[in-house]
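> call design_seq(struct)
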């Protein structure tokens, strides 16, 4: 089996077939067409493997046009794209799943971004930024742009990649502290001791999700959706590697071990994770509290929000 990452394959396929097609068939637009691979799919995050190749993986790329250019040549450019060789570099044609349409081919820039963030423009207010989930922003800014001579696609992308406004980042960090404290430090051991294993596991999962989100927020990076968030965590420069390992340990206890011993180890790991986070909150000047309980840090962080409407929101909600 040929070993190549989907993003690498996409770029090679574009330069072999896509760019020559643009230069020969659409020369008057060659300085206006952006090309790359961004969006849904593990290959856009660089996480694709052999298992990823069963659907929506293979030789393909995106061509992004302005609204005006899409109206002028969108259909014609799509036909030219569809006529390109389907197999490439010894790999078979892409198998498109029922839900895989619209990921590749000719796309209008504003509608491409609207699909993920809900707006056909970069968010311009705190309210607009606040409603866009981290996972969707991660998808809208992943992958690679191979070329963008006109620059409109990359301009939109750069505004998203600049990350949340600081007030929104602080609001999310404050809420994540509350969830980590409630789910991990407080409810997880109580549910475990009551024998409520489903509730305990759910609390542990909520704690892990909030922790990973918080680490990404501390790094000013968007967290991918649940399937990839732990793997992506490892690469974050701030707390990424230690939290990745601690979370791995948290979910890796053998079933035959004594339940009381497992609980003690899990509580210790949860507290260790929280202490790592608290130290970083203090280093970034986000919290001056000396408490070991993250519930005490959330409100402190929220007071640092400048916008009065955002600062007045429920600290638990985000």
């Amino acid at each position: 089996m040929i070993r190549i990452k989907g993003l690498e394959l996409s770029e090679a396929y574009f330069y072999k077939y896509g760019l020559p097609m643009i230069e020969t068939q659409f020369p008057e637009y060659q300085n206006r067409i952006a090309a790359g691979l961004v969006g849904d799919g593990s290959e856009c995050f660089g996480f694709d493997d052999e298992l990823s190749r069963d659907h929506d993986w293979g030789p393909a790329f995106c061509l992004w046009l302005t609204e005006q250019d899409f109206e002028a040549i969108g259909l014609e450019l799509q036909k030219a794209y569809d006529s390109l060789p389907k197999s490439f570099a010894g790999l078979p044609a892409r198998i498109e799943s029922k839900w895989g349409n619209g990921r590749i081919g000719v796309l209008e820039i504003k509608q491409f971004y609207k699909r993920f963030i809900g707006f056909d423009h970069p968010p311009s207010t705190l309210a607009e930024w606040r409603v866009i989930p981290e996972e969707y922003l991660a998808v809208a800014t992943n992958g690679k742009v191979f070329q963008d001579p006109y620059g409109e696609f990359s301009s939109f992308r750069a505004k998203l990649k600049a990350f949340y406004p600081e007030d929104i980042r602080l609001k999310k960090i404050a809420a994540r502290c509350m969830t980590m404290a409630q789910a991990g430090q407080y409810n997880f051991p109580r549910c475990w001791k009551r024998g409520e294993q489903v509730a305990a596991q759910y609390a542990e999962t909520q704690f892990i999700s909030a922790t990973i989100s918080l680490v990404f927020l501390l790094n000013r990076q968007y967290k991918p959706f649940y399937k990839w968030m732990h793997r992506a965590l490892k690469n974050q420069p701030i707390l990424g590697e230690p939290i990745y390992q601690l979370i791995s340990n948290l979910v890796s206890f053998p079933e035959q071990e004594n339940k009381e011993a497992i609980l003690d180890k899990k509580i210790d790991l949860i507290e260790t994770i929280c202490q790592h986070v608290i130290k970083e909150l203090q280093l970034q000047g986000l919290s001056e509290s000396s408490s070991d309980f993250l519930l005490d840090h959330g409100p402190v962080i929220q007071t640092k929000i400048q916008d009065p409407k955002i600062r007045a929101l429920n600290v638990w909600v985000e």
